[in-house]
């Protein structure tokens, strides 16, 4: 068991290193010149050369990558080129906002999708199953920005029940924060619900076709007990994997939703940083996204191994 955990951790570390290479390479090929963007109209050949030397842009890309990687390993994310503040200090509040948004979304999306998936699997090919399948197929086909735009048009513009943006100033009350979160959370719940519902249904139905489940049916075991005590525990593997994918998306893939609702999260900060050519900020945020996505998937893999003795024996 320890060997399995070690192998998975090593695989996660190697994947994160590969992601760091891609992040650095991606920022290297961004269009435009960061020095020109910073200096603007006041640039001169001397100031350009001095700033390039200060930012170490005159060094080879490989040397800058290993220097950047060494700083990351020491916990130094660099300094923002725009504000001059440490990147870690800047992103702290934005990261907390993204985690709040992801946490509230998961709090609603996971139990609702579990319930819909279990209902659909309990009554296969019934009108209820067909209705849930059609609804999830429709939802999964609609991009997030369109869902967000429809919600804003209906709930914020037409009926004026909720604010169109999630930007709050000053010291907002709990009620104001909750009202600001309703639209982005609803958009993300709709986007995440379809994937988890369909995977839960497929995993449960796959287990229900097993011989031991058929034997339980022949013995007269109630359907509810078969699903909850026999099928669900053995279907946790694929369900946990899709939950991990959705959690990774809720943190690293919400750039569009945060931009549409002007939500002060990491996704919006990354968009602003790309526009300002704040390369250290873009690199740090992209690496945080990659680390979180790899981390939740690694955690899901470990939980699957821990909950399935067959995988432990196979390894």
Q: What does this entry look like structurally?
A:
It is a single chain. The protein is mainly alpha-helical and 315 residues long. The protein has a domain at 95-278: MetI-like (MetI-like fold, Orthogonal Bundle), CATH 1.10.3720. The protein contains 15 helices and no strands. It has helices at residues 2-28, 34-39, 45-54, 61-73, 87-122, 127-140, 144-158, 174-208, 211-218, 223-234, 236-252, 255-260, 266-276, 279-307, 309-314. α5 (87-122) packs antiparallel against α6 and α5 (87-122) packs antiparallel against α11. The mean pLDDT is 84.
Summarize the structure.
The protein is mainly alpha-helical. The chain has 15 helices and no strands.
Provide the fold topology.
Elements: H1 2-28, H2 34-39, H3 45-54, H4 61-73, H5 87-122, H6 127-140, H7 144-158, H8 174-208, H9 211-218, H10 223-234, H11 236-252, H12 255-260, H13 266-276, H14 279-307, H15 309-314
Helix pairs in contact: 1-14, 5-6, 5-8, 5-11, 6-8, 7-8, 8-10, 8-11, 11-14, 13-14
Features:
15 helices; mainly alpha; 315 residues; single chain; MetI-like fold
First-to-last CA distance: 8 Å
The CATH homologous superfamily of the domain at 95-278 corresponds to MetI-like
Unreliable sequence segments: none
Mean pLDDT score, rounded? 84
Structural class: mainly alpha
Strand content: under 5%
Could you say what the CATH architecture of the domain at 95-278 is? Orthogonal Bundle
Number of helical regions: 15
Major sheet description? none
CATH topology term of the domain at 95-278: MetI-like fold
| Rg, nearest Å | 24 Å
Order of H and E elements = HHHHHHHHHHHHHHH
CATH class of the domain at 95-278: Mainly Alpha
Assign a percent range to the helix content: over 70%
Outline type: globular
Number of strands: 0
């Amino acid at each position: 068991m320890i060997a399995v955990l070690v192998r998975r951790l090593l695989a996660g570390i190697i994947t994160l290193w590969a992601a760091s290479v891609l992040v650095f390479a991606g920022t290297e090929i961004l269009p435009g010149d960061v020095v020109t963007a910073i200096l603007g109209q006041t640039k001169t050949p001397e100031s350009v050369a001095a700033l390039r030397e200060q930012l170490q842009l005159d060094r080879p890309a490989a040397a800058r990558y290993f220097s950047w990687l060494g700083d990351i390993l020491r916990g130094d994310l660099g300094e923002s080129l725009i504000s001059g503040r440490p990147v870690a200090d800047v992103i702290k509040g934005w990261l907390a906002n993204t985690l709040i948004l992801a946490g509230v979304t998961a709090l609603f999306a996971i139990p609702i999708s579990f319930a819909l998936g279990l209902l659909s699997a309990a009554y296969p090919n019934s009108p209820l199953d067909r209705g849930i399948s059609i609804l999830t197929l429709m939802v999964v086909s609609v991009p997030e920005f369109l869902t967000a735009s429809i919600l804003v048009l209906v709930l914020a513009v037409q009926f004026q029940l909720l604010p169109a943006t999630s930007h709050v100033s000053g010291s907002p009350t709990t009620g104001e924060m909750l009202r600001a979160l309703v639209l982005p959370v609803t958009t993300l719940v709709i986007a995440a619900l379809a994937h988890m519902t369909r995977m839960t249904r497929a995993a449960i139905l796959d287990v229900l076709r097993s011989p031991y489940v058929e034997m339980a049916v022949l013995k007269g075991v109630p359907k509810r007990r078969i699903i909850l005590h026999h099928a669900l525990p053995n279907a946790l593997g694929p369900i946990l994997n899709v939950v991990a994918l959705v959690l990774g998306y809720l943190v690293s893939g919400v750039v569009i939703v945060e931009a549409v609702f002007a939500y002060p999260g990491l996704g919006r900060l990354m968009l602003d940083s790309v526009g300002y050519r704040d390369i250290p900020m873009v690199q740090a945020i992209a690496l945080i996204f990659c680390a979180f996505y790899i981390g939740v998937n690694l955690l899901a893999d470990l939980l699957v191994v821990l909950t399935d003795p067959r995988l432990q024996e196979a390894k």
